[in-house]
Structure formats: C-alpha cells, structure tokens
Design a protein that fits this description.
Bound molecules: cobalamin, iron/sulfur cluster
Distance between the termini: 39 Å
Radius of gyration: 22 Å
Largest sheet: 6 strands, parallel
Shape: globular
Number of domains: 2
Oligomer: single chain
CATH architecture of the largest domain: Alpha-Beta Barrel
Number of helices: 20
C-alpha cells in the first residue's frame, strides 16, 4: 500500500517573504506516531508543508492528513484534490475532532481524538475493504505502542528534531484549552511507562530534547521517576509546566538535575477574576513571582505565556502585564489573543452570548480577535496585543529585565537570550531559506549548557527557541 501523510501549513508558514522560525522547530510527531502502525511492506512518506513544498502529482492509495484549526482550509483543499484523483483520504487531529461534520465533507474517514486505538482498527478495516466513515477514540493508553517512525522525519529541516511526548493531555481543564474537547469520551491525561519513555529518550541522538507534553510535571510520581531515570544521561531539555508544579518542592530540583534549562509556564493573566472565569483554578492564589524566582535560582529560563482579551481585561491590561513580566526578569514571553476554539467551554459560552464575530478558521491563530471582547474593542485588543510584543522586546525593556539578575554574567545572558530570539528574526528566516536550520542545533545545545545551577560555565546565550501558544 502506498501511504502519504501530510501536515498542511497555514499561509504564513509558506510565505516566500518571511517564515517565522517557529514553523521550522518541531517535526510532525503525530504523523510519525501513526506511521508506526503501518506494515513494513507499505510505502510511506511524510510531508510537512511548514518546511517543504508538497509534491502533489503522486497517486497514493491512502492519504492521511492532520488538521489544526489554522490549516483546516488548506487541509480540505488537499483532501479534495486527492479524492478527485481516486485516493482514499483519512483526516484526523484537533480540528477534525472539534468539527467532524465539517471535515467529513472532505474526507472518506474522519477520526475523533488521539489515534492510538482507532488508527490500527481502521487499517485493519481498510485492508479488509470495509473502512467506516468515522472512528471515535475511547481506549486511551500509551502501553505497547509501536516505535515512532522517526526515520521518516527529515531531521535536517528542523531546529528541534528531538521533540518528544511521553504523556497525552493534562490533569487540568481550563475553559479555553483544546484539551477537554479533544479527549472527550475517555481519559484526558495519561502517560507512557517510565521505562518506555526512557527508552525513547535513549534512541534520540545528540543532547537536546524538547518535551511537547502539555504538562510534563502533571503526574508527580511519573515525573519524579522519569527525572531520576534521566540523571546521568547528559541531556539538556526544555518543557512546559504550570505555576503550581513549579512551586512544588523537590520535583523542579530533580528536573534541573537531569537537564531542564528552560520552561514554558502558562501564567495567562494577572487577574484572579479572569482565572476563575476560565476555570484556571490551579493558578489561583499562587505566587507567580515566587515561581519565577525559584526557576531563576535554579538556572532555568522562563518562557511566560499570557492571554489578552478575557472579560476583565481593559486598556490597562497590556502595559500592566508587560511591565510585570519585565520587572520579574522573564526571559521570553509569548502573548496571545484569547481564541475560542470550537468544542471548548469558552466557545460554547461565546456562542450562547452571541459574541462570536466570524468562523474564518484562518484567523483563529491567537493573533486576531474573533469574538467581541467585554471591555475592549476588537481593534484595541489587536493593537494592544502587538504593542505588548513590541514593548516587551524593546532593547530598553530587555536591559531592564536583565537588571533583575544577580550577577553580570546572568544579566548579559538575559540580554543575549531575550534579544536573540526576537531581534534576529531575519537571521532565522535566512537560515530556514538556506536549509541551514539544522546547523543551529549545536549552538542551541551550547547555549543551554551554559544555564543551570549545576553548570560549570556561564557562557552567553544567543537565542531562545520557544513554543508559541503551544500549551499549558
Ligand atoms: C508542536 C506544536 C506545534 C508545532 C508543530 C506542529 C507539528 N509539527 O505537529 C508548531 C510550532 C508548528 C505549531 C504551530 C501552531 N500551533 Co501548535 N502545537 C504543538 C503542540 C505543543 C504539540 C503537538 C504534538 O506534536 N503533539 C503530540 C502528537 C503525538 O500528537 P498529535 O500531533 O495531536 O497527533 C495525535 C492526534 O492528534 C491524532 N491525529 C492527528 N492527526 C491525525 C490523522 C489521522 C488520520 C488520525 C487517525 C489521527 C490523527 O493521532 C495522533 C497520535 O495520537 C500542540 C499541543 C498539543 N498537546 O497537541 C500545540 C497546538 C496543536 N497548537 C495550537 C496552535 C493554536 C498553533 C498555532 C495556530 C499557534 C500560532 N499562534 O501560530 C500554530 C499553527 C499551526 C498550523 N500549522 O496551523 C493549538 C491547536 C488549536 C486547534 N484547535 O487546532 C494547540 C493544541 C496548542 C494549544 N493548547 O492551544 N504547533
Ligand atoms: S491550558 Fe494548560 S493547564 Fe490548562 S488544561 Fe490546557 S494544557 Fe492543561
């Protein structure tokens, strides 16, 4: 069987004028996971439109498309074209799970939720000539999975080829998050066995790892055993976790001990009413400042995530948030405009209140306002969002943030790290264009090894690969 797996891209990611580095960070791990279930005789290829031009003149038997909300229209276009040519099209992923009826107009089979149970069943049915039009995931487990087909990933096209997930979902249930909708009908948080996770880590070459788990620290027992097992592996890694888990004694120290150097933390908002309204209870009454100090004291860089446009937010929210982030010495920040993804509790509330402005999925990218905010005009929200980025990454602000660091070497490192990411974007763009992105990895490893309480050197840093609106 000839199988073609596609991760379609949103327009911006293909732009000949400017391609943000974030699209060349991580390979399509979901598709490589699904490819593991194919037979050895199957001819399979994965194409990721974020980093390569799709070859569309082939004639596969089965086309597999992963759909995110912002790439939905492109995914449908590709699906329609392949179906016209007689290929069987299977579609799954987050957006398909949220809106299966919409996706079903462009696919022969749609999949709801994670694919580890439904995909092998489909393959059996497909080979037997009786595939169903819809499969809904119910059995949630990561036990006994086939090996991820990392051999199908074009590693040289990614800055972070060693991305890895050792769990799925998250123990929390914030209103705006994709998680509840995607995992509906089964467990919403589960992990691999520690042994399997360690074995997967051992298979990855080099030193650097990026855990894409929504909340790597979410299961304390699993996380402690994992970190204990990783001690001595000589890895340098980045991940995401919550404020609450950072404040927990011991776990963070264990993580740093085995190589944690940068953490994505979902602060989201400084307003407790907003937190309550979004059911982000795990952040309520937590001392954000103490969490940041704890990370910095252990030599871990902070990538803080903030969301604008919640109901309590007014014109002041942008400056208040940015000033606070700078005063705390946060190295990098990602800002987002609140986006009600279909299927979430937030979306339902917005629909009931008649506040959704349109359903143009291309603009559901957390940079456009797609609902009517309570105390801001849509225009003020978008303008404030862009101003927040500008203000946070101004050289004077970077320098001010650096003043919060105790030593000169740490201050310089802050300047280099925070400045490197945003100020040298054209440089990253050029590296992507020249297909040299992979050559930057040793640089990244050198940078990360300069961090950490236990590191011997205090080398300066240049840039900060980070995830934007990825999770937690
Ligand atoms: C890595 C990542 C990225 C990477 C790369 C994505 C990639 N290479 O796959 C980059 C940086 C490019 C990225 C960009 C964006 N991302 Co992103 N990203 C993620 C992240 C952190 C991990 C994805 C991952 O690898 N998961 C692990 C693998 C194993 O799981 P998986 O990919 O979901 O695949 C499984 C299932 O989905 C299913 N499946 C998927 N496809 C199919 C197909 C079939 C046929 C079947 C059977 C099953 C199936 O089976 C797989 C195995 O279980 C997720 C958070 C998350 N936890 O999912 C956010 C997330 C997916 N991103 C999100 C967003 C919003 C974006 C951006 C719009 C951000 C922005 N502001 O620019 C862009 C746009 C992306 C686009 N092209 O449209 C949202 C998606 C919201 C939505 N409803 O679609 C998420 C959920 C983050 C969040 N919490 O809000 N992202
Ligand atoms: S926003 Fe983060 S903490 Fe909340 S449910 Fe989603 S992944 Fe978990």
């Amino acid at each position: 069987m000839r199988v073609k797996m596609i991760l379609p891209a949103l327009t911006e990611a293909k732009s000949p004028f400017f391609r943000p580095i974030k699209y060349a960070l991580f390979p399509p791990l979901g598709l490589a996971t699904l490819a593991g279930y194919l037979d050895a005789e199957d001819e399979v290829q994965i194409q990721d439109e974020h980093v390569e031009t799709l070859q569309l003149n082939d004639t596969p038997d089965l086309v597999v498309i992963q759909v995110y909300i912002t790439s939905a229209y492109r995914a449908y276009e590709l699906a329609d074209a392949y179906r016209k040519r007689g290929a069987y099209v299977a579609m799954g992923g987050l957006h398909v799970t949220s809106l299966p009826q919409e996706a079903a107009q462009h696919a022969d089979t749609v999949f709801l939720g994670p694919g580890e149970d439904t995909w092998p069943q489909f393959l059996k049915d497909f080979r037997g000539g009786k595939p169903a039009p819809l499969y809904r995931s119910q059995q949630r487990t990561l036990l006994g999975l086939p090996l991820i087909r990392r051999d199908l990933i074009k590693r040289h096209l990614y800055l972070v080829p060693n991305s890895i997930v050792v769990s799925r979902g998250c123990p929390h249930r914030c209103d705006f998050c994709y998680k509840e909708a995607f995992f509906e009908g089964g467990k919403g948080f589960y992990t691999q066995t520690v042994d399997d996770a360690l074995a997967e880590i051992s298979r990855l070459p080099g030193r650097h790892l990026y855990f894409l788990d929504d909340h790597l620290f979410g299961n304390v027992r699993f996380a402690s055993d994992l970190f204990a097992g990783m001690r001595g592996m000589g890895r340098l890694w980045q991940a995401a976790a919550t404020v609450q888990s950072v404040l927990r004694p011991r776990l963070l120290e264990m993580a740093v001990d085995c190589g944690l150097r940068s953490l994505f933390v979902g602060f989201e908002t400084l307003n407790p009413h907003n937190l309550r309204a979004q059911q982000k209870y795990q952040n309520l009454n937590r001392d954000y400042g103490a969490a940041i100090r704890r990370l910095h004291d252990l030599g871990v860089m902070v990538n803080g995530s903030f969301v604008f446009g919640m109901d309590e937010d007014d014109e002041d929210v942008f400056a208040r948030t940015v000033d606070w982030a700078i005063s705390q010495g946060i190295e990098t920040a990602t800002f987002h405009i609140l986006t009600p993804y279909p299927g979430t509790a937030l979306h339902l509330r917005m629909v009931q209140q008649g506040r959704i402005l349109h359903d143009n999925w291309d603009l559901y990218d957390t940079r456009h306002v797609v609902f009517r905010p309570a105390r801001l005009s849509p225009n003020a929200l978008e303008t404030g969002y862009w101003r927040a980025y500008r203000d946070f990454y101004r050289w004077s602000a970077i320098w001010q943030g650096a003043q919060s660091k105790a030593s000169w070497s740490r201050r310089l490192r802050h300047v280099a790290y925070a400045g490197g990411w945003k100020k040298f974007e054209p440089f990253w763009d050029a590296a992507i264009r020249l297909r040299q992105v992979r050559t930057l990895l040793p640089l990244l490893e050198a940078i990360l090894s300069g961090f950490g309480q236990y590191s011997s050197s205090e080398e300066n840093t240049i840039f900060a690969p980070q995830r934007e609106n990825l999770a937690a």
